[in-house]
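Reopening: Kinase-like protein still failing for me.
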Amino acid sequence: MFQPVPEKWLISPRLIGKGTFGSVYIATRKQELGPRPYAVKVVACHQWNQIDRIKREAKVLLDLDHPNVIKVHESVIAGNRFFIFENLVCGGDLFSYISNGKTFRALAETEVIIIVYQILKALQYLHYEAKIIHRDLKLDNILLKVTPSHKLFTKTGTTEYMAPEILNGSSGYGHKCDIWSVGVITHFLLSAVSPFFSVDCRKIPKLVGDAQLDMEGCPWGSVSMSAKNFVQTLIERDCDVRPCTNQCFTILWIA
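Support: Ran it again with your exact input. Result attached.
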């Protein structure tokens, strides 16, 4: 299918994902006993600066090792394509988990706590050990194993999840921009509503900048006050006031 193909691997023609980052296929190692499926991202590179950027990103990913972060095993350049081989996660993404294609469903608060806790554990590792800011957390970027576990990976940014300091083009943003995104994700999981959704995408940056939350009415009737306080604390416009990852674990709802 691919010419040339990385020599250690067999790549199936079965497409399992596609996006602006490239395409994802099933792969197996040629020398591995009892063929285990992996995922391989295939990125077409037409310019050398693209290759250099992707190589740098892949090197960072190869060094990551945490149960809530997808494990990357190898990255290979072959021809004008860049192949990134990683663990296959079969449970779909969190966006699909709460969507039936037309509407969204809120999750039970106990389930949301489990999900958010695992996201925060992954961020704790990225922020304090790997010294990495994710900067692109959203429902689509959180993958589910068949057994309950939640793993982070990266695609493309979405305005609704971005902290004000990112949207403002500030060069001084830090890892707290990821905490804002966790707050948006938590809001969505508890209520099935994005805190900053608008049919007019041009209005979203202002909604994000205002950071006004409405947690009254039907979607929030059965949600505890401690959960609402958690969301409000994370979706804090002032990044100096917004908690860091470690501080999130001291907030009553998640502690």
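The mean pLDDT is 87. If you still see a failure, please send the error message rather than a screenshot.
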